[in-house]
From TrEMBL:
The name this protein goes by in its record: Leucine dehydrogenase
Family named by the database record: Belongs to the Glu/Leu/Phe/Val dehydrogenases family.
Lineage: Bacteria, Pseudomonadati, Bacteroidota, Sphingobacteriia, Sphingobacteriales
Domain Glutamate/phenylalanine/leucine/valine/L-tryptophan dehydrogenase C-terminal: 138-346
Originating organism: Solitalea agri
Keyword Glycoprotein: no
Length: 348
């Protein structure tokens, strides 16, 4: 908690529903902490804690760099989302969120969906990502994918002087809510798209629908492609995979793609691989949820997601000018905004 400057961490446990969850609030300078609830079968509670601490910190910087008045938080429920989920478990979790009196607002993430958010809503108003038919912003996957697509095009512009992805070869790891929509954008633009996932049925479906090429999971890092798009889980860019990756750009939706932000960010820069900071280009989901909370509507949300193109180019410019990695450049801009607003609030 002290290492990454978290504000608070709440462990939630309920025997009758089998709920075991952790809510981490990183920073609330800009506004209430917001972050999805991930349900995952973690190997240990320590792994779950590590994940929620990293993810909540990323949310702080994501909101800050996107210009939203929101803080950073995240929740994880320990369990198998296919087997352990129930209405009672989700509603019990909603009660824990309600006890935080609006300091934390949640939405969907890996392993949770709009139905789960509806159960949480039965116990607390501090939840977004509700189905469109019920007045919410619905699935965040499409807008997240659009933001990643914008960030990827900006990366292409920076690396090759032209933002067209037509004819480029792109490996998308994970074709879930975000990955599938990203594959559609890329395929529609004429890219050659390779896909991998743990879910065989989904792979066949997406490959057929969007004319993509299936590759076995273990081969995704060895492909001779222009772009690697991690859209499954974090830390896939590490010392081991960097020996295998041959791409010129890394741009995807997964949170915390770099196992060690400093070490692997620097390695990428030395290798001449352009890295589009994850917390910047995957902000579409947050933008969508913010539109639901603030009532600004879908059109404005799409404009903000489109703006990721420009912000990504600004970050690359700063990275070059200051001789720092794009990740550090993005972090500095986000931290400066938080610092400025903290001062503003202290003086008023
Ligand atoms: N949904 C959003 O709006 C959003 C926003 C920002 C960031 N993200 C991040 O993007 C990533 C994807 O989100 P999503 O909503 O599409 O999740 P999802 O659960 O719908 O999809 C993830 C997919 O990755 C696959 N997968 C898991 N481990 C894998 C592995 N080792 N190799 C290949 N495939 C694997 C899963 O089978 C699944 O199909 C996550 O890291 C999430 O935190 C999502």
């Amino acid at each position: 908690m002290a290492d990454q400057s978290h504000k608070s961490i709440l462990f939630c446990s309920d025997k009758s529903t089998g709920l075991k969850a952790i809510i981490a609030i990183h920073d609330t300078t800009l506004g209430p902490a917001i972050g999805g609830t991930r349900m995952w079968n973690y190997r240990s509670e320590a792994d779950a804690l590590d994940d929620v601490l990293r993810l909540s910190r990323g949310m702080t910087f994501k909101a800050a760099i996107t210009g939203l008045n929101l803080g950073g938080g995240k929740a994880v429920i320990i369990g198998d989302s296919n087997k352990d989920k129930s209405e009672a478990l989700m509603r019990r979790f909603g009660k824990f969120i309600n006890n935080l009196n609006g300091e934390f607002i949640t939405s969907q993430d890996v392993g949770t969906n709009t139905r789960d958010m509806e159960y949480i809503r039965m116990e607390t108003p501090h939840v977004a990502g509700i189905a469109e038919s019920l007045g919410g912003s619905g699935h965040t996957g499409p807008i997240s994918a659009y933001g990643v697509y914008m960030g990827m095009k900006a990366s292409a512009k920076e690396q090759w002087g032209n933002d067209s992805l037509s004819g480029k070869s792109i490996a998308v790891q994970g074709i879930g809510n975000v990955g599938e929509h990203l594959v559609k954008y890329l395929s529609d633009e004429g890219a050659r798209v390779y896909i991998s996932d743990l879910d065989e049925e989904r792979l066949t479906y997406v490959a057929r629908k969007h004319d993509a090429i299936i590759v076995p999971n273990h081969q995704i890092y060895d492909l001779d492609v222009d772009i690697y798009a991690p859209c499954a889980l974090g830390a896939t860019v590490n010392t081991e995979t960097l020996k295998r990756l041959k791409c010129s750009i890394i741009a995807g939706s997964a949170n915390n793609q770099l196992e060690d932000e400093e070490v692997h960010g620097q390695m990428l820069m030395e290798m001449g691989v352009l890295y589009a900071p994850d917390f910047l280009i995957n902000a579409g989901g947050l933008i969508s949820v913010n539109s639901e909370i603030s009532g600004v509507g879908k059109k404005r949300a799409m404009q903000l997601a489109e703006n990721i193109y420009k912000v990504t180019l600004d970050i690359f410019r700063k990275s070059k000018k200051d001789q720092i990695t794009p990740y550090t450049a993005a972090l500095k801009i986000a931290e400066k905004r938080i610092q400025d607003i903290r001062q503003l609030k202290a003086n008023s």
